Structure formats: structure tokens, C-alpha cells
Amino acid sequence: MEAKNVKGTRDILLNETGGFRTIENILTQICGLFGYHELRTPILEHSEVFARGVGEGSDIVRKEMYTFEDKAGRSVTMRPEFTAGIIRSFIQNKMHIEAELPVKIFYHGPAFRYERPQLGRYRQFSQFGVESIGSSSLYNDAEVITMAYTMLASLALNNVTLKINCLGDKESRDNYREALKKYFEPHLDNMCPDCKERFRLNPLRILDCKVEEDKILAKDAPKIKDYLSASSLERFEKIKSALRSNNIPFVEDDQLVRGLDYYSEIVFEFAYVSKTGKDYGALGGGGHYGNLMKELGGPDLPGVGFSFGVERLFDILVDDGILEAKTSPVDIYVMPLGDEAKEYALNIANRLRVNGFATDMCFDDVKLGAMIKRALKKGASFAVIIGEDEIANNKLMVKNLKENVQEEVSSSELITYFNNLYMKSRGGCSCGRDCSVDCADCSCDNNCSGGNNNE
Ligand code: HAM
Known about the structure:
CATH superfamily of the largest domain: Bira Bifunctional Protein, Domain 2
CATH architecture of the largest domain: 2-Layer Sandwich
CATH class of the largest domain: Alpha Beta
Number of strands: 16
Strand order of the largest sheet: 1-5-6-11-10-9-7-8
Structural class: alpha+beta
CATH topology of the largest domain: BirA Bifunctional Protein, domain 2
Number of domains: 2
Largest sheet: 8 strands, mixed
Distance between the termini: 51 Å
Shape: elongated
Bound molecules: histidyl-adenosine monophosphate
């Protein structure tokens, strides 16, 4: 039987990994601009980190965690999200003592949830996210939302809808929970089994239910905004004002409660429907959390953060033609004609690589025409053809595959030859000058067209 991947997992294929890396590089760059540093936490955590952190009332903890006993009988869980593990690490490594607050952390990697697989929803997926920990300033919240928006804009995703809502402080949420209980109690018998449990554990989660009848019922449920304390309302208004003055458009969505129990005050989510009309679900989301640190045994410090789903970002960017799923081409394809030429060709290929040219070579004894087809398939712009005569004369045949012209180049001049050809397309010498014009009187040590390379 042919081996298959586990349901809900996905191979990121050869023509996709470059796009994933591009996304991660762009987001990493923005993290640097906002003063964030990367933290890598283990995939495996003690199960209680998520039970206490994400909350026993959440669907994630109740139904979706990959939890098992290790050989010593300890319950461990493959992270369903990063935030709880990041806070666990913050506390354990005493970052509040060692570092200046807020500590600004970014992270990326795989997360695991046993969900029903569908478009944009996997059981193993990648998140890229940030947490800013240790400042209760509302401007910290506003900056984090600005950062998420900047990230999407720098990926050329401009038509996103930023939805925001305020869940209030503890007092606001306690009052709201009571109001929800009063509202849903008479309907409990007709509600789905999940909602019956949500009612018991955390009635806020009922507002997240996807069952049609429960969704209709939830529409007329009390709204959190009517239960917000004066200080939560004021905080929310000031964050909105900060977003407006930063030209960040948003819509208020009083149904937005988010699926994790640790949130308080502002929560947000980014929605996007691709040009083809496909809806992959939220691109990312996050919010402020006031109690998570204490819940995990740490000091009384708040945090705010968000995560993006990288598969969703990638699929949408490809769908909308912003990113192309392709393997990166090689520059040069080396073609030895006959067995004798192979050792020499291997040497030439390595010299080209050492000098920064992506180079591949043909190992098989096939005709020149077949080699050219292979070179074109690999996206090569040039071929270096090496036969017995070329070795004897120390001359190589360089073929421009796009223009279908060729010329002889001496082996010792090969690197200089390609340096000159590629100089313009690569933006000139690293010293900032266009060497094909300036090199003779340039004082840098690169000597690009002078032939003094790693020959
Ligand atoms: P979340 O909304 O559960 O939040 O996940 C964030 C993003 O991860 C989602 O918007 C989505 O893009 C992606 N995602 C979630 N589940 C899946 C899945 N099954 N398949 C594919 N993509 C998925 C959190 O995880 C919070 N920790 C965010 C946060 C950080 N809040 C504060 N700090």
C-alpha cells in the first residue's frame, strides 16, 4: 500500500517552500522594525499549560488537542497555539526581571489542532505571531494592531477587513457571562450538545458556535458593549482613536469573541476574501490578555499579541496572483559531453557556485538537445558546454539559452564573464557602483570585472 500523509496535514512542496520563506522573511523584517526578537519554544508542553492558559471552556482544549502520555506517564500536548507556551517561557526564564518591559517577542512554526479539515483549515498548520508582554498601556495594544496591519500591507494584502471588539475587564466579563446565562438558559434543551457544555464552562463560547439554530439564537443575545465598565469603554475608545489617526481602517463586530479564553479588553481579527471568491477563514487574530500570566503562575503582567496562519497567507497570495508558486531557477547549467568531461565539469560547476551563481550540471549521458531541454526546465539562462576539445584548449562554450547564441570563453575568464553579464541584473557591485562602467578606477577590493575572483 502506498504510504499517505496523515489526514489534515499538508506537504509544502518544492514550488511552495520559496513562497513560505518569502512570507516569513518579510514578516521577520517587520518584526525587526518594531523592535521584536525571536523566541523558539518547544512544540511539546505540559498539557496544563494549555488547559490553564487557553482555557478548559475553549473548543481547542475540550476537543482539538493532540494530547498523550509520554513514557513516564506525564500528559504532554503538541502546541495548538503559541501564546500559552511563550508566556510559560517568559515566566520560567524570568524575562520580567532580566529584560526591559514590554518584552517584544515574535515566533513562527507548526501548531496542531484536531479540527475538521477543510479549505484553509488543517490539523498541522504554521503560525507567525508576536507577543508584547509587560505593558498595560493601551498604546501597546494599538501598536500591535498597527504592526499586524503593516505586515499584511507589506505582503500587498490591502483589502483586508480588520474587525475589532472589546471584551472588557474581569468585572465587565463576569457581568456579561451572567447576562448570557440568563438569556440562553430557557433555550438550553434545543441547543447543540457542545453549547450545553459551553453554557456550563464559559457561556461566551456559545457566541462562536457554528450550528445554524444556535447562531440565530446568538444574534439576539445580550451584547458585551452594554456590560463594559467605564474604564474598559474609555480604553477601547482611545485605541480606536489611535487606529484612526494611524489610518488603519476597522469595523466593530460585537459578535467577535475569539476562540481562546485568555482574552480581555480588545480583540481583533483579519478577514479577507480572495479575488476568486474563496474564503480561507481569518488570516489572523489576537488581542489583549490581562490574566494569562497569573493563570500560569507568573507575575501580574498583561500582554497583547496576534498570530497569522501562514498557509492561509500563502494560498491567498497565490490565488490573487501576488505570489507565484515556483521553484527558483538556476543561473547556469553545465553540460559535460561524454564521461571524460564530467570531472572537469564538476570542477567548473563548483567554481561558479563559489562565486555566487546558482549552478546545476547534467550527470547523464544524453544528447546535447536533451541537455538543453533539461536546462530550460530548470530555468537556466546560460549553458556551459564542455567537450574534449574544450578541455584540451581550456576554452568553454557558453550558450545564452534565451537568445540562442553562443561564444567561446577561456576557462580562466569564465567567472569574470558571468560577473559582467549578471552585474547589471544584480544591481552592480556590493560597493554600490556599476562595475561594468566604473571598475577601473574603483578602490573597492571586489575587482568584479578585473577577474580577481575566487578562481
Ligand atoms: P487563533 O485565532 O486561534 O489565535 O489562530 C490564529 C490564526 O491561525 C488564525 O486566524 C488562522 O489564520 C490560523 N489557524 C488557526 N487554526 C488553523 C487551522 N486549523 N488551519 C490553518 N490555519 C489555522 C491564536 O492562535 C492566538 N494564539 C493568537 C494570539 C496571539 N492571541 C494573542 N497572541
